[in-house]
C-alpha cells in the first residue's frame, strides 16, 4: 500500500477499509474470524419471570464450542418495582440478566456478588454464549478457588445499561415498541447498584457475604458498601477509584466521539435503520485497550516487532504487531457489544464520584461502616493508579474500618485484575477465608 | 496455582510480643503499627481473640499478612496515623519500630490519641554492651539484635530507657507499666532501680496512656 494523503475522500475510505480489514491476530494462539453480526435485540429478548432464558441457546458460536448447561437467568421487575434513576426518570419495567454459580445455603448467608467491569458481563465463570470463551474471572471463581463455588453462592448480574440481557439502550422501549437508543435514560453506578438490590431482595438475601469487582465493578462494590453497609459483610474493590479521574473521563470521551463520528451510528438510531457503527466502536475499544495495558507490557509483548513481514511497507497496513493486536481487539469487541451501551456505561463511570456526594470528604461515605474491606491495586495500573486505592484506604481508616490493602507488583497494567496474579489470588483468598471465619461460615481456622 | 495453607513455619514468639500479649485484654481492638510479618497480630488473634489491624511499610509483608487473613494496610507510622480517629482502638502498639520513625515524639503522641493505651517496645541504647562498644572500641554498636552497620540501619532515632521516660514526661503520658528485658529475654523485676534497668535491659516495653486529668 502506497502512502496516501489525508483529505481525499476516496483515499480516506481506502484507508478506513485498510484499517478495518478483517484480520487475524497471530501471536501463537488466538485466531478468530470476527463475526459480522451484532448480538442485539434479535438474540437477547426480554425474559419474563420464569428466570430461565433460553434465548442464548441458538446464538452462534465462533468456533466449535457448545454452550454449556448453565441456565441463563434473568428477572424482569414490572411497574410495581419501579427504579427511580438519579437523573429523575423511572425505568419500568426493567430486566436484570444474571448468572449464578454454587448453592445458596439455608440461611442465605453465603452469597457473593461479583460486579463486572465496563465491557464485562454476567459470564464471570461460565462460557460466553456469543464468543464461546471461558468466563472472564475463572482465575478467581471456581471449585477450590478463592471465590469457591463449592462453598458460596455466586451471583453475577449484567448491569442495567448493558447489552447482555439486562435492560439497556438496545432493549425495547415499551412506549415506542422500538429500541430505546438515546431515549434510554442516562444511568449511574448508583442506579446499577439499586437495580442489583432488587435482584438481591428477589433472591431473599438480607446480607451479601461479599461483594467483589474490578474497575467499574469496584465502583459498584464501593457504592454497595457506602450506601448499604448493613447488606455487605465484606467488600473487595479491585483496581478502582472512588471517583473517575479527569484523565479517564477524557479517554471515555474519545471513545464516545469515535462511536458518534461513525456515520453508521445514525444519531443512535442505528438499530431501526439497520446499520451498526462497528468502526467507531472498534476505534473506541482500541483506544481504551491501550489504557488497560502498560508501556512495559506493550514493550515486552510486542516491542517494535513487525506483523508477518520482514520490513516496514511505507503504508498504513498494520506493519507492527501492536497495531494488528489492537485492530483485533477492536474487531473482536464489536461482535459482542452494543455501541449505545458503550456510551451509557462509560458515562455512568464518568459520573461516579463518592467524594462530591459527601461534601468532598470521602471518609464521610463510609461513616459507621460495618463492612470489612480488602482494597487491591496494581503498581503499573495507570488507569486506576494505586494512589486512588490509597485514598479509599485512608477514608476507611479515618473511620477505623476493618481494611486490608494490597498493592500488587506487576507490569500488566489495569488488566492485571483479570489475569493470573498469584499475590492477588492469595490475598483475596486469605481475606475471604478470614471473613468467612468472622461470619461463622467457616468454623475451622 | 498452588497456594500453601500456611506459608510460614511455626515460630517461637518474640519475648516482647509475649509481654505485650500479657498486657492486652481479650476481644480488644488493637492497631499494630509496623506490624512486620503480622506475627504479633496473629499471636493476639489466636490467644486473645482481638479485633486487630496493622500498618506495615513493606508491601511484601503486607501482602503476605493479608493472605494469612490479617487486616493490614501498607503505610508508615510517620504519615498514616493522622488518618485514624481519636480513641478508635483499645491499644495502639508500636513494637521495635519507634527507633525507625522520623518523628518519634509525634508518633508517640498519635499513638496516645488513637489508642486508649499505647504499648511501645524499643531497643535500649543504654545497655552496657552498647555503652562498652562506644567507650572501649570507639565504634558504633553492632549487636545480635541490632546487626546493621551505621550506614545501612533503618534505625535512626535510638534512645535509652531513661530518654524514653523523659519523653513520656514531656508529652504528659502516664506510664502504666514498664518492663525491661535482659539479654536472656527475661523481664527484670519491676522494683529494679531505673539505672540498673537502663544498664542491663536489652529492650523495654512501656504501656502508656494520656494524662486525662489535664485534657
Short description:
The complex is a heterodimer of chains A (445) and B (215). By secondary structure, chain A is of the alpha/beta class.
How would you summarize the topology of this molecule?
The complex is a heterodimer of chains A (445) and B (215).
Chain A: H1 9-19, E1 73-77, E2 83-84, E3 90-91, E4 94-101, E5 111-115, E6 141-142, E7 147-148, E8 153-157, E9 172-173, E10 178-179, H2 189-202, E11 208-214, H3 216-227, E12 232-238, H4 246-261, H5 270-273, H6 278-292, H7 295-301, H8 321-334, H9 339-351, E13 372-378, H10 386-397, E14 403-408, H11 422-439
Parallel strand pairs in A: 5-8, 5-11, 6-7, 11-12, 12-13, 13-14
Antiparallel strand pairs in A: 1-4, 2-3, 4-8, 9-10
Chain B: H1 15-23, E1 29-33, H2 39-48, E2 51-56, H3 59-67, E3 71-74, H4 77-80, E4 89-95, H5 104-114, E5 115-123, H6 128-137, H7 161-170, E6 173-181, H8 194-200, E7 203-210
Parallel strand pairs in B: 1-2, 1-4, 2-3, 4-5
Antiparallel strand pairs in B: 5-7, 6-7
Question: What are its keywords?
Answer:
heterodimer; A: 445 residues; alpha/beta; eight-stranded mixed beta sheet; two-stranded antiparallel sheet; 14 strands; 31% helix; globular; B: 215 residues; Rossmann fold; seven-stranded mixed beta sheet
Tell me what the structure shows.
The termini of chain A are far apart. In chain A, β13, α10 and β14 form a beta-alpha-beta unit. With 445 residues, chain A is α/β, with parallel strands linked by helices. Helices cover 31% and strands 14% of the residues of chain A. With 215 residues, chain B is α/β, with parallel strands linked by helices. Chain B has a single domain, classed as 3-Layer(aba) Sandwich (Rossmann fold). Chain B contains 8 helices and 7 strands, in the order αβαβαβαβαβααβαβ. Chain B has a 7-stranded mixed sheet with strand order 3-2-1-4-5-7-6, with helices on both faces. In chain B, β2, α3 and β3 form a beta-alpha-beta unit. The longest helix of chain B is centred in the middle third of the chain and has 11 residues. Chain B is globular, with a radius of gyration of 17 Å. The interface between A and B is medium-sized, with 29 and 24 residues.
Amino acid at each position: 500500500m502506497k502512502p496516501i494523503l489525508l483529505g481525499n475522500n476516496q483515499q480516506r475510505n481506502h484507508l478506513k477499509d485498510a484499517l478495518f480489514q478483517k484480520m487475524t491476530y497471530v501471536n501463537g494462539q488466538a485466531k478468530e474470524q470476527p463475526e459480522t453480526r451484532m448480538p442485539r435485540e434479535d438474540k437477547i429478548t426480554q425474559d419474563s419471570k420464569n428466570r430461565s432464558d433460553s434465548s442464548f441457546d441458538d446464538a452462534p458460536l465462533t468456533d466449535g464450542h457448545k454452550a454449556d448447561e448453565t441456565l441463563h437467568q434473568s428477572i424482569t421487575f414490572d411497574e410495581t418495582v419501579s427504579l427511580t434513576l438519579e437523573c429523575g426518570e423511572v425505568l419500568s419495567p426493567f430486566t436484570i440478566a444474571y448468572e449464578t454459580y454454587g448453592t445458596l445455603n439455608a440461611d442465605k448467608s453465603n452469597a457473593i456478588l461479583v460486579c463486572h467491569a465496563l465491557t464485562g458481563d454476567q459470564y464471570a465463570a461460565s462460557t460466553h454464549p456469543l464468543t464461546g470463551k471461558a468466563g472472564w474471572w475463572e482465575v478467581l471463581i471456581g471449585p477450590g478457588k478463592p471465590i469457591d463455588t463449592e462453598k458460596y453462592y455466586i451471583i453475577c448480574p449484567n448491569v442495567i445499561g448493558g447489552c447482555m440481557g439486562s435492560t439497556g439502550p438496545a432493549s425495547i422501549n415499551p412506549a415506542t415498541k422500538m429500541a430505546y437508543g438515546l431515549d434510554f435514560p442516562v444511568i449511574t453506578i448508583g442506579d446499577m447498584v439499586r437495580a442489583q438490590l432488587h435482584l438481591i431482595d428477589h433472591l431473599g438475601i438480607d446480607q451479601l457475604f461479599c461483594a467483589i469487582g474490578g474497575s467499574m465493578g469496584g465502583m459498584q462494590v464501593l457504592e454497595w458498601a457506602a450506601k448499604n453497609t448493613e447488606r455487605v459483610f465484606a467488600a473487595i474493590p479491585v483496581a478502582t477509584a472512588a471517583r473517575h479521574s479527569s484523565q479517564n473521563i477524557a479517554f471515555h470521551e474519545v471513545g464516545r466521539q469515535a462511536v458518534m463520528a461513525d456515520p453508521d451510528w445514525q444519531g443512535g438510531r442505528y438499530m431501526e435503520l439497520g446499520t451498526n457503527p462497528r468502526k467507531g466502536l472498534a476505534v473506541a475499544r482500541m483506544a481504551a485497550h491501550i489504557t488497560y495495558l502498560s508501556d512495559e507490557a506493550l514493550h515486552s509483548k510486542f516491542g517494535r516487532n513487525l506483523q508477518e513481514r520482514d520490513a516496514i511497507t511505507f503504508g498504513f497496513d498494520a506493519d507492527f504487531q501492536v497495531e494488528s493486536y489492537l485492530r483485533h481487539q477492536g474487531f473482536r469487541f464489536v461482535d459482542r457489544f452494543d455501541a449505545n451501551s458503550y456510551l451509557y456505561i462509560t458515562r455512568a463511570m464518568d459520573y461516579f464520584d463518592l467524594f462530591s456526594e459527601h461534601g468532598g470528604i470521602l471518609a464521610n461515605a463510609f461513616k459507621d461502616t460495618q463492612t470489612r474491606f480488602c482494597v487491591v491495586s496494581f503498581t503499573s495500573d495507570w488507569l486506576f493508579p494505586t494512589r486512588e486505592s490509597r485514598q479509599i484506604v485512608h477514608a476507611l481508616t479515618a473511620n477505623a474500618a476493618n481494611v486490608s490493602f494490597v498493592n500488587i507488583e506487576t507490569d500488566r497494567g489495569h488488566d492485571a485484575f483479570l489475569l493470573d496474579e498469584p499475590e492477588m489470588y492469595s490475598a483475596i483468598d486469605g481475606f475471604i477465608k478470614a471473613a468467612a471465619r468472622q461470619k461463622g461460615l467457616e468454623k475451622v481456622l | 496455582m498452588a497456594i500453601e495453607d500456611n506459608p510460614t513455619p511455626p515460630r517461637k514468639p518474640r519475648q516482647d510480643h509475649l509481654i505485650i500479649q500479657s498486657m492486652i485484654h481479650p476481644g480488644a481492638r488493637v492497631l499494630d503499627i509496623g506490624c512486620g510479618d503480622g506475627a504479633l497480630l496473629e499471636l493476639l488473634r489466636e490467644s486473645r481473640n482481638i479485633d486487630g489491624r496493622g500498618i506495615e511499610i513493606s508491601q511484601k509483608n503486607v501482602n503476605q499478612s493479608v493472605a494469612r487473613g490479617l487486616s493490614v494496610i501498607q503505610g508508615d507510622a510517620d504519615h498514616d496515623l493522622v488518618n485514624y480517629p481519636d480513641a478508635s482502638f483499645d491499644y495502639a502498639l508500636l513494637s521495635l519500630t519507634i527507633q525507625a520513625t522520623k518523628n518519634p515524639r509525634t508518633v508517640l503522641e498519635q499513638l496516645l490519641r488513637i489508642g486508649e493505651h499505647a504499648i511501645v517496645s524499643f531497643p535500649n541504647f543504654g545497655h552496657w554492651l552498647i555503652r562498652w562498644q562506644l567507650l572501649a572500641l570507639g565504634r558504633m554498636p553492632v549487636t545480635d539484635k541490632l546487626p546493621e552497620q551505621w550506614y545501612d540501619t533503618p534505625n535512626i532515632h535510638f534512645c535509652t530507657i531513661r530518654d524514653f521516660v523523659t519523653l513520656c514526661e514531656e508529652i504528659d503520658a502516664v506510664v502504666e507499666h514498664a518492663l525491661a528485658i535482659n539479654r536472656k529475654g527475661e523481664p527484670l523485676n519491676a522494683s529494679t532501680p531505673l539505672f540498673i534497668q537502663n544498664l542491663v535491659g536489652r529492650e523495654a516495653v512501656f504501656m502508656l496512656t494520656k494524662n486525662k486529668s489535664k485534657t
